[in-house]
Structure formats: C-alpha cells, structure tokens
Fold these 2 entries.
Entry 1:
Amino acid sequence: MIKASVIVFPGSNCDRDVKVAIERITGYAPNMIWHGDASVPSSDLIVLPGGFSYGDYLRCGAMAAHSPIMKDVIAKAKAGTPVLGICNGFQVLCESGLLPGVLMRNRSLKFICKDVFLRVERDDTFFSRCYRKGEVIKVPIAHAEGNYFADTETLDRLEGEGRVALRYCDETGTVSDAASPNGAQRNIAGITDPTGRILGMMPHPERLYEAALGGTDGRRIFESAVISLTADAA
Amino acid sequence: MKALIRITLKNGVLDPQGKAIEGAVRGLGITGIGDVRQGKFIEVQLTETDQSKAKQIVEQMCKDLLANTVIENYAYDLVP
C-alpha cells in the first residue's frame, strides 16, 4: 500500500489531477491535506501540486512556504519522507529552503503552456529509476515563472553532486539555449536534494501519465517512486 | 511609526520586466533614459515604538518573507 499525501493550498489547481494520477498508477487514493492543518499524516510520499497558491502574491510559492502545514512537510522531508514538488510545488520547495535557487519570471514574460522535451539526467534516484539516463521525454509545462536561477557556486554544486534531474532540450536531446522555453540557467527543469528523495520540477508529469492524455512520459516519475518505496520496505 | 520597504533585484540578476518597461518608455518617444530595473515597495504600519526593536522586526520580516535574498536586496526607512 502506498500512502501518499497531496497538500492543498488555496489556489492549488493541479491537486486533483495529481490525486487521480497517483490513484490510477499506485492503486491507492492519496490523502488530500489542507494547508491550514498542523501536520501531515504519516506518508510514504508527499506531493506539493501545481497551481497558483495564494494567487502568487509577493512571489510564487512564498506565502505557501509559510503555511502552517509546511512546518511538518519540512520536518518530514528532512527526516527522509520523499517529496515531489510540481510547478508551483517546485516554487514552494525553493521558497521553503528544501531546494536551493528560485524560479523567476520567464525571460519572455509570457505564460507558457506547451509540451517540452526533457533530458533525463539521472536514472538511479528515487523518482527517476524507471527512466534511462540521457533519455528524451515529452512532458508539458504551464508556467509564467519557471526560469530557474541560482548563483554560479550553487549551480556548480548541483552539477557536481548530480542533483540536476531534468534539463530542457530539443527532440534529439541536445541541450541548448534555444531549447530552453523560459531562460532557466543551464536549462534546468528539475533538481533534487542531495538524497534524491526531494524532487522539484516545473513540467507536469501528472498531465501525461496515460495514452488517453496524449502521452505516458510522465508516468514513470510515479512508477519510480512506487518501486523505490518497495525497495525501501524490503 | 511605519516602515517603507524597497525590494530590488540584485545586480546581475536578469530583470525582463525592467527591460520591457524600458522598451515601453522608449516606445512613448521618451529619450534620455538608460537601464530600467523594477522592484517592490511595501509599507508596513508598526505598533512597536522603540526604534531598535522596530528595526529588528523589519529585518526579520524582510529576511523571512518579503525578500528572497537569493535574487533580491532589501532596504527600508522607518518614518513617523
């Protein structure tokens, strides 16, 4: 049994999408946890969903990062509970300090909603073990603030520690400035903490998890988590 | 007392909104301008009357929430 918890902030709008994806893939419905709650029930996986928490006031994710529930999310993440932050969830992870850097306004200043190609940089982490290293996958983005920024020292550390999980690329897997939809530094679309158990990513894997949705490339994020959890338990 | 807080992007951090504003200003036919950088202005009423305690409060607010010090600087004035 997989016990997942999806945190629902005022303004989350991908919470039910990710709930359905997790339920279909794992066979178990996740708990939906309101941001004002004081604690997350004991969970195998915590998901911070996409959306516009608190209307993106001040900075994307800034208010949500200080929601009552986040104290416990941060404590559980630090104690080893895997956390997946998608889009706004990635922004919340950065604002809460669980991941470094910040997601800035896209360089075009436009909200971008389209499928993009991603190169999988690791195939041996909690959320990536069902992919192949170097594989090119297609997953949609839908954001106005996905332009990943961190200082050079932080970027070098992320690269050195193998914490860049996903990069924007073209169809052939070539990572170039032209292949970056939003101007993200080093084409970063997703990063992890040093353990690989906290993943923040701008693209939406829950939007392409079965063929009826137009693709299945997002599915293996969740399947990887299931296999990793089974391995944890063994 | 109130705090007048200015939050600006650090030097070297790309500011596409500032660039767009600059382009729009030039589009109006206004000349004699250089780079434009945009930021936020936040005004907070303080019930604390002690100047040094008020400073501490504002510092904490800025560090913990109002500014993201990865990309932003903050500055403030305390005024009556």
Note: The two ends of chain A are 13 Å apart (CA to CA).
Entry 2:
Amino acid sequence: MCGIAGLIHRGRSSVVGSEMTAMLQALKHRGPDSTGYAVYGEGSPGDFVMRFKVAEQEDMGRGHGIHALIKERIEKVDGILVEHGAEVKSRDRATEYALRYILSHDGDTEDMARHIEETEGVEILSLGNGLELIKDLGDAETVAEAYNLDDFVGTHAIGHTRMATESDVDIRSAHPYWAFPYNDISVVHNGQITNYWLMRREMERQGHRFMSDCDSELLAVYTAHNLARGVELEDSLRRSVEEIDGVFTYLVATENQLGMAKDTMAAKPLVLYESDDLIAMASEEVSIRSILPQEIDTWDPYDEEVRVWQT
Amino acid sequence: MADVTDFELRNLSQEQRARLLGMDTEQLTGRSMFVEFDPDESSRFTYPWAPDVDYNKRSEIDAGDLSATEANIRIRKLMSEGYGTVVVKNPRGKHGLGVGILNRLNLIFEGSLGYFGVGLIDGPNVRINGRVGWSCGENMMSGTVVIEKNAGSTFGAAIRGGDLVCKGSVGSRTGIDMKGGTIIVGGDTGALSGFMMQRGRMIVCGNAGKNLGDSMYDGTIFVGGEIRSLGVDAVEAEMRQFEKDWLTRKLRLYGLLPDEGVDHFNKIVAGKQLWNYDNLEPTEKKLIL
C-alpha cells in the first residue's frame, strides 16, 4: 500500500509545494517509509534545473569517510558539467547528499546526464526546465522542511508516500521517478507490476537504464520509451493498460500535462476532483480534503480509465 | 438466552456470547434473515445491551477536529444517554466513521466519509449527505444507509442485510461476497460487481462494468443500463412480475424510480454450472481429487 497524489492548476500558478505537502501528509498512513515530490515551477527560459544526490541517507552514518567521498563526487560532477560546456548559475544544498543546480547548457543534455551518472554513487533525480524532483526518507512535513518546499510556486505536482514492499527503504527506491533522460517527465505509482522483469529486460535491450529494483521505475522508463518515439502521453497511458500486467494506478506529469491510468481490475484506488481551474486526485479523499475542506464532488475512475489534463 | 441478564452477557467471553445468541450455528435468526425474507418485518431483533434511544432526542457532533475513534466514541456516548438522532458535521473524508453501531439510531453525516464508513452496523438508519470511500457498509447486518453522492469500490462488501443505497455512481467490485440484503445504485457500477455474491439483491439503475456477477453462487442482480460483460457463470434470466413490483417499490422508496418504470431492467442470476454446484458428496470429491 502506497499513497499517490496529484494536482494541476489550469491557467495559473499556485503554491503547489505546500499544497502537495498537505496532501501527502494526509496519506502518511499509506506509506511511512519515504516521501517524494515532483513539482513543476515556472522555470526560466534556457535554464535547466538539475536535482541530484551523491549518497543515500543511510550512508551518512558510515563514518567520516563518507564526507570526503561526497566532496569528491560533487567535484567530479562539476568537472563533467564544465567538460560539457554547462554553466552552473546557482548551487543549493538541502542536505549534505542532495543538491540542486540551475545551469545553462546548449549541448546534448542526454549525453551529459549519462556522463554524470557514470560517477559512482551519483544519481540525477531530475533534469528539466520546470520539473524539480525531491525524495527522501520520512513523512511529507519532514521532507518539505528539509528541502524548503512550502514556498514552491508552480502549476502542477505529483507526489508519493511509500510503503516499501518490492524493494529497500532508500532514496533510489522512493518515488517519483524521473523518466531518464527526458526533460520534465515524472511518474508515481501505487501497486505491483507482475511482468516487471519481462518488461525490464525488454527495455534494457532497447538501451534504457534502471537505477533501482523497484517495479515502479519501469513505468517511468516505459513512458520515456514511448514519448521518445513520438507517442502522445494519452496513447502511452492507454498502451500501458494493455501491456503492463498487475494492479496499478499511476500518475505521469510532463512540462504541461498530468495524466492517470488505472489497471484492468481497478484494484488500486484513486479519487478525482475536477473543477474549472483545479484538478486534484489522490489515493484517498482525505488527501484532497486537506486542500479543499469545503464540501466537494469527487468520484472514483473505473478500470482501464485513462485521463490527461493540460495546465 | 432469555435466562441471561445483560450484566451476565457483558461478563461473558465473545465466544460464549456468540453461542448464547445462536451465532455459532447455521440457523441464524438475526435481523439479516428477517429483512431478506420479510421486508415488512416490524418486530426487530435488539441486542440485550442496546441502549433505549428516543428518535426525537437529537444532538450534533463536530468531527472536524476529532479523530475517527473520538467521533465514534461520542456517538456511542450519545446513544447511551438516550439520543436517537445524531448529526455528525464536518466528517471531511475521515475513515471508519460510524462503524459497529449495533443499535437503532438515526445517524446523519453532513459531508463525506472515507474508507470503511458505517461498516459492521446492525440497525441504524444512516444518511450521508456527501460521498463515501472504499468499502462503505462492509458486513452490514441490517438498517438502511443512504448516500446522496458517489461511492468508492467494494461498496457493500459481504453485506448480510439491510438496504445500502448510493444515489450516485459506485466503483468496482460492488457487493463482492454479499450474503443478503439489498444494494441499490442510482448511477453506474464498475467491474466485477457482484463477484462471488451468495445471496441478496443488487439493483443498478445505470450501467454495469465488465464481468458482472462473476462466479456468483446465488442472489439476483437487476441492471437498468448496459452491461459491459457478464462474468463466469452469470446468466440473464426472465424478470417476473413480482420482481418488477418489488423493484418499483424499492426504487420509489429511495426516490430512484425511473420515469419509464422498470420494464427495461435486466435480471442476472447464477447459472450454477461451476464445479461447486455438483452433486458429489465431500467423500466422493476426496476420491476424485
């Protein structure tokens, strides 16, 4: 059991950071192990936001050597950025192991991203113009405070509270997943994918990389695979209902879209609220009520249902 | 049972109480059976320890800042003080509200409930002026529950008696494993509704999703709209006049009777062709297996 939530404002921005924190905190009972956000800000034209980690939270308790190792890994990433002609405009550090760079780059960002991830212990959480992906151990309020998310202004966001069932309790297995190496695409998932290894081998044969053993990562890679071939998001979601086995409800966000898909059995929950200027969805109504306490009309999407909304 | 006082019952173990109330045998005589076979039954079974409440005595609870447990304790306290009508304001989608009420009571929720709302109830009349999450009315024994908006999946799972009514649409697996009572849906229902239902009746005024009545043992499903597909061993049957009369009466009771009447409803029952309907004795089955 995990909790997923998403919200999208149509035609305006809002404080999506604090809104998503409230929604995810209300879902804490569905997943106490880790919390993750994919928030979409307004960005600045031509600049990329890169969120990456250089160690796991559990590594921090392994003696003084880790601090030197972190320093070394950051220097390596900085060197690779220079090598690829990227200019780092700002550096932020929410924790010792999680960093946020704003950079300008005119070259091949995919090649740069692959090069950075060749560094041992380094994982890019997100790279894009609007997307910022934050995930760490603990509940939503803990993560939001550590990463200063409450003031984050943007158009849409998805989030996840994780109860680890298929893989370890660590940041690499936490959601959301960035659809590496494609800008601004992220995925959160509730459920189990039963043809995971079959599909993963297929994706790996086609050159995609997996950073974890979490079955949910497959959905991000699968979506990236489809979008890279010119498939529209809605078609990719419909195709997934046919091709991916198991029980799942998942949300996908892109630079200006938010989509959802439910499996053929409708075995995992999702409650939807839709108005002219706001669409909110979550595993449980109590999450939506955390940002909309007034009486509202909500409903459950049915099996095989796919929906996509624009900002 | 008549020889046992309330005080003595309270001091018995759950197993001993169940035995005294006749719940350890197949011959249940509780209200769920009465409601199933005699909708006009007036003499109602009551638990020996059930407080005597007055429907005209009314109180309100603001659940906005209460946990579900605190709100449920308040409801019980009001019942013990003789309040027969309780209004719960600001439920705000909280889970497990109004569960386990084994007493007659008018319970009104001014808003929406989360998961497992009013489950395991035996007796109250509940009105929910909002929507409900998954598993509303699960294992309900008797009483009525009327929901004004939509409901989530597994609506009325394993219900044994009473009327569970959703005026809007419901999610998937409605009435899964139901053993009695009536589930009424004003709108549509999702996939696998009536899955493994054993007894009781389900009325869906709108459309039904795929695999309707899959592996149902018994019971009847009435559908006013389109059925996407029937499940394994679910078959269409001829609607008889007394069933049309019953449908009309039930739907009128809850303001859900379509203008065009009930002639367009389809009736779905178990085909009884699955392995569990063979005539072999258990010992014979063992020989085969």
Note: Confidence is low (pLDDT under 50) at residues 24-39 of chain B.
